[in-house]
Amino acid sequence: MAEPQERYPESATHGGREQTTDEDGEAALREALAAHGSDIADIVERTDELDDALTTAILIAAAADEDELDHITASTTNLVEAVDGLSTEDAAALATAVGENADDLSASLDSVLELQREGQLDDLVTVAAAFSESLSPAEVEELSTMLESNGTEIVEAMDLILELQREGHLESLVDLAKTLSTLEIDEDAARGLNDLLGAVGEARRESEPVGLLGALRRLGGRDARAGLGFVITVLKAQGRRLRNDDS
Amino acid sequence: MSDDLDGVAGYMQRAKQQALKNVEHVAEGVAAETLPEGKLFEIAQSIGDKRLEELNVEDTTCGYCAVGCRFDLYSDGEEILAARPTAEEDAPVNGISTCVKGKFSYDFVNSDDRLTSPLVRDENGAFREATWDEALSRVAEGLGAIKDEHGGEALSVIASSKATNEDNYLMGKFARQVLGTNSVDNCNRLCHSSTVAGLARTYGYGAASITTEDLELADCILLTGSNTTEAHPVLATRIKQNVRDGADLLVFDPREVQIAEYATQYSRVKPGYDAVWINGITRYIVNNDLHDESFVAERTTGFEDVKEAVQEFTPERVEEVTGVPPEEIAAAAETVAAADACVFGWTLGLTEHSHGTENVMAMANLAAITGNLGKPGAGVSPFRGQNNVQGGGGDMGPLPDNFPGYQDIADDEIRAKFEDAWDCDISPEYGYYTTQMFLAADDDDVRGMYIIGENAALSEPGVNHAEDVLRDLEFLVVQDLFVNETAQYADVVLPACSFVEKTGTFTNTDRTVQMVKQVMEPKGDSRPDWKILQDLANRMGREWDYDSSAEIMEEVSSLTPLYGGVSHERVDGEGGLQWPCWDEDHPGTERLYTEAFNTENGKADLQAVGYSEPAEIPDERYPFTLTTGRVLYQYHTGTMTNREAGIRQYSPNNFVEIHPETAAELGVESGELVTIESRNGEIAVPAQVTDRVGPENLFVPIHFADSAVNRLTDEEHLDPAAATPEFKVSAVRVRPYEGKAETMASFDGEVAGGAD
What we know:
The structure holds two protein chains of two kinds. Chain A is mainly alpha-helical. The longest helix of chain A is centred in the middle third of the chain and has 30 residues, at 137-166. Chain A has two domains: 33-117, no CATH class; 119-246, no CATH class. Chain A is built from 14 helices and no strands. By secondary structure, chain B is of the alpha/beta class. Chain B folds into four domains: 1-52, no CATH class; 119-191 and 387-566, 3-Layer(aba) Sandwich (Rossmann fold); 209-382, Dimethylsulfoxide Reductase, domain 2 (3-Layer(aba) Sandwich); 624-713 and 726-744, Barwin-like endoglucanases (Beta Barrel). Helix content of chain B is 36%, strand content 16%. Chain B has a seven-stranded mixed β-sheet. Chain B has a six-stranded mixed beta barrel with strand order 23-27-24-26-25-28. Chain B is globular and about 70 Å long. The relative contact order of chain B is 0.15. Chain A: Residues 1-25 are annotated as: Disordered.
């Protein structure tokens, strides 16, 4: 004889198990990482950042074709310095620490590292974030349209911008006249880029460092997404250009 | 450490999935703002292809109703992401069609309250989590103690028609071999057992004679007691298509159900008098010499008895009793007689009565005298309800009177075959039917139960009584996906897994055995039923050693002539096999009775059926007739569908259909609460005023726990042959609800398990 019992331990359910496992998983991850230096632990502290970074990685991968992907991942040289102190040795140590599950973990981390490893991405995200603050959707659209007719020139401009950024000459970006004088583009394009680069410079000055997390956090709104869309479009145009160069 | 690592890997996996979810939103925005449409499709396609590569995709058979739809299910290992059409040759019944449940309702698989660990009672009677080892030990001890003290007959098993054929075969074997009881039954008792009894008695097989295609080949379809569009939507589509192309559709039903909108003729009948109007049609046909004389002469016996028995059902009497006017009886009779091929379809409106078997036999007579058996486009078609009630509930023999393949346990030769194969003694005495188990428990003839995938606390008739029985059992084991209303009474609850988490076969309503394939790993520590049963059997002294459900099917086919040629390899390779399939060279049987009936002399043995009426007839105190049934977006007691947010949005609440005249007399409008009271109990539900029901009738669906309609039904008046309860007729009274409305505000009840 048993009286009916509506209550039972939540831990015996899928919901309870999922919660527990999440906590256990995060704890185990923290533990494993703590054993390998504070730099790695710093990364893990920011699990939201991992999520966000993965999101972005996938987004980029989703929108790019094979050549563009190759370009994103292969044109980079110095992976280690790109990340907040995370070295390849650390990454390897981490993978070793998690033993038989190294593949899963390192694959996920690789996604993050791939983002970081190519400085472009960080820059692009920064541009997108800045962009979102300065342009309305209509303006973004205008820029997109403009890209259709002036893609090559703008790609060249972007290349220049990105190179300058990588070299730390961000301030010089603000000097639009100087930049644009090297290119032959029409007024619309110039105005668009003017807006864009102004925003980049401002963002860099005002929120130093913007960083991946900061940039991503701003990507919630519709405008922010539109900005990111613009950046991806640029990236794709760049990919086309590379293909054309190859052929 | 390995557990921790699993955790790490699992955590990272989920982080990635979360990112995937985020990206969809981001990508939408990006696409909308910046990309041309052509490019958008290109990107969508490449993303789609990439993602599909990472998913597990299997063709499988639906786990909702028994139509037997097949489709591809997509899973990422955590949840079911999509159901898409599979290759058409692998989906003989549905092609590319599925209904809303088969397409979308999979949230139950990983709902938060899905049970993933065994539960046992602690010293205070509260549930606590347990290991499988402890839980199985407790079950072995609990059931073993009753067996030792009172004999195996004091135990009973309720098997699950949700589970596979292989699971069900072992449930029957477990009851007889391990526990030593013939009291093993399943939800068929609450639905189509009277169909099985009635058809077996007249034709030999307790199953549909048609193949599904016949619904499209028929010139005429007579439907009764079937809310086809809501309970069997995919079959309804095929019927509607045939009607569109010119077939006649006759619908006899107390409710003007949606399929009636497509009918050539709809006749409203009073609930509980089906044999009367069916016999009225038969009388018209034989008295006007419209029957198929050569078929009757060559392929039936008992025609004269039937002819004599139907004479009392004059048009006037039929109208008086059932409300169907003479011209409608005549029109239906002439339509059926004029048709070259007619299918007679029904569900529980015909069967869930205290005389359901007689109703079915009356229908079987009508089909036989008009020669509508064993040819394309003609035959009888009970639409089965629970996904595997035909195979698991019937064919596999978790039944008190039959071994697998409807082999009678009282037959010495057959019993000896199983005793030899299973290495045990088996009593020739029939065990208790499900409904009888609950009555026997009152007399301590049943002391312990093992209930698998069935929510008896809601689905049994007269659930107030069922609850008392469950509370008073000496030992109760429940094996389920959830701690449903029944499991709340259990001493031990064992977590089972769903059809997407295991491999086996289902047999659908037209006898097609089809593959069920594992699409994802069992949730948590849940296990397939067959593995649980094997572990338990071995703890209780047996040596079961099945490595796979395919091995179990090998054993089934070796002992079951109907399934003699059925194997997983064949079923998978041939896209389904219809029984009888006698041996490995037999192609299966599309249509029954093309040459002979499954009787001793090969002829249909027509049975004279006289007058019958419901056990409860409306009177002054209880003037209304309550009938119960289903709605499209819900399924049985709702354990699966009520865990689906979308479904709940469409169909969250219980209700009662009341005719406008009745509502006006009561002073009740749609949405207002009414109290419905029977001799067995009362419930309060919101009114839905509609002329879908007649002025003297009420309708309440069966899917909702909080205001369970089975508090009103009666557990004592059972069909004498099949022990089916009379769910379809209860005498009730109704009044505006008098309590505080706020206390009744929530009707979106927890729901659970169920009948066919």
